[in-house]
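Chapter summary example: a protein plus 4GY.
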Amino acid sequence: MKFDVLTLFPEMFEILKSSVIGKAIEKDLIDINLINIRDFSNDKHKKVDDTPYGGGAGMVMKPDVVYSAYDSVKDKNAKVIYMSPQGKKLNQKKVEELSKENHLIILCGHYEGIDQRVLDKIVDEEISIGDYVLTGGEIPAMVLIDSVSRYIDGVISNESVSEESFSNGLLEYPQYTRPEVFMGEKVPDVLISGHHENINKWRRQESLKNTLKKRPELLDNIELTEKEKIYIKNLNEEV
Ligand code: 4GY
């Protein structure tokens, strides 16, 4: 997967070179190409923004400069994504969908935003990471790259992807590691039993409990067996 990132602050993406995503880059599983929009400014002061027509606070990124930056990576097979609180809210389904693309061009705005005319010309999809306003699209772009990269073959184990929260529509079951007793609290016996069928059953029940307690609305969107429906009904009657 290739990510081209159009940004005024490429140095912010250094963080992505650590940990799991850093390893994925080293292994050539993903390629993150940072394009500094300022390099495409056409005046001697490297100007990239200007005051808004109609007045008002702040600065607007210039359409000609943003277009030139885009033109340098343009590919008719790429999907161009603009990170903005006005976009469709990102979720795991969307993440998985995007991981099937070969080439994403991610546009990061800053200040008051980008001239609408260039957005209308180049953007295929506007995506938001949540209903709050940030100072720029760079952190959202990193959220998108990180979440999408996890679905690229070899970045993390296939089991990690399929067993985690949301892949089955439920929250995850709790995890434990050594020591067996911590501050007087013992690891659940079933996990030490080595009985895999019981372990899977216990984990599914803990997932259901966790989801009911923390995100009950998620239960409306998933298929449950009759037994599981009864299990949940009983949990509801306990409280
Ligand atoms: N929330 N989800 C978000 C954001 C900052 C001005 C346009 C968000 O995706 N992006 O808050 N972005 C703004 C800053 C230009 C982007």
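Key point: The pocket of 4GY is lined by residues 83-85, 109-110, 113, 128-130, 132-134, 136-137, 140 (CB under 6 Å).
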